[in-house]
Amino acid sequence: MTLANHDRYCAEIVTQTDLLVSTIQGRDLTAPVPSCPGWNVGQLLRHLGGGQRWATETVRTLATEPVPDQDFRDLSAYTHEDPAVLGPWLTEGAGQLADALRAAGPGAKVWTPVPGGTTDFYPRRFTHETALHRADATLALGATYVLAEDVAIDAIDEWMELGSLPMHFEVHPHMRELLGPDRTIHLHATDTAPEAAAEWVVDLTGDAITWRRSHEKSAVAVRGPLTDLLLTIYKRRPPHGEGIEVLGDAALLDFWLDRVSFG
Question: Are strands 199-203 and 210-212 parallel, antiparallel or unpaired?
């Protein structure tokens, strides 16, 4: 399951940013972000906004090679951000990215950091990049994080696709250690309608990481609310915390989470 189409992703980038902006109004952005060690909320949001602007420039120019990242990886200058300033800046950047993606359209040739090389990568990636960093900020500020079911399912699908790319074996050879007989992981969302089919199996038994939407007996099963599953695979919450049930080989789950990541 993916979100409906290119335009829906473009709209969702703006929606997720608007939800984020509403969360930070009147808040102290110097609060630390436990899921992004070393950053406070203001720095996290400068990183997100900078990433959106980087993607805008990449798509706007249909770049054929990486665009400079505008120095939003060094966040030392952004320790005391004002939500009254940062909010409009985030809103502007999300709108610019959505406009650039709509102007370029789906399927246009452009540089991407993973195989594919079309504009299809950017609206989906920045929908979920924005949604997950919204989670980082929301939880750091002690607020409740809620994500629409279709967005959360698509975020897990995208994570599975990106996390199983063969290129990871070249960049991180230690990931090959995941492969072995009887190594399967079943993720099962417990709070979705049956027609959502929000279940995934990660298969590590072959010569590559594969995954499928399925209900199968596996070496380890992980059951919990959909958003909690998403936050678990993104390492935003512990896999053995409240609300998550782990059945079977918990060590395999921990090993997989340690070795595979994206975003």
Answer: antiparallel
Topology annotation, domain 165-259: Nonspecific Lipid-transfer Protein; Chain A (3.30.1050)
Nearest alpha carbon to residue 232 among 123, 143, 132: 132
Summarize pLDDT for 82-94 with one digit per residue, the tens. Answer: 999 999 999 999 9
Q: Which helix (H) or strand (E) holds 247?
A: strand 245-248
- Rounded to 5 degrees, what are φ and ψ at 60? -60, -40
Is 180 strand, coil or helix? coil
pLDDT per residue over 174-211, tens digit each? 899 999 999 999 999 999 988 888 999 999 999 999 99
What phi and psi, each to the nearest 5 degrees, are found at residue 196? -70, -25
**Averaged pLDDT for residues 9-25:** 98
Query: In the structure encoding, which two tokens stand for residue 53, read together?
Result: 């602007």
Question: Residues for the chain: how many in total?
Answer: 263
Q: At 121, is the pLDDT very low, low, confident or very high (cuts 50, 70, 90)?
A: very high
Q: First and final CA of the chain: distance in angstroms?
A: 20
Task: Please answer whether residues 220 and 185 qualify as being in contact, where contact means their C-beta atoms are separated by less than 8 angstroms.
Answer: yes
Q: Using an 8 Å Cβ cutoff, are 230 and 262 in contact?
A: no
Q: Is the domain 6-146 a CATH 1.20.120.450 member?
A: yes
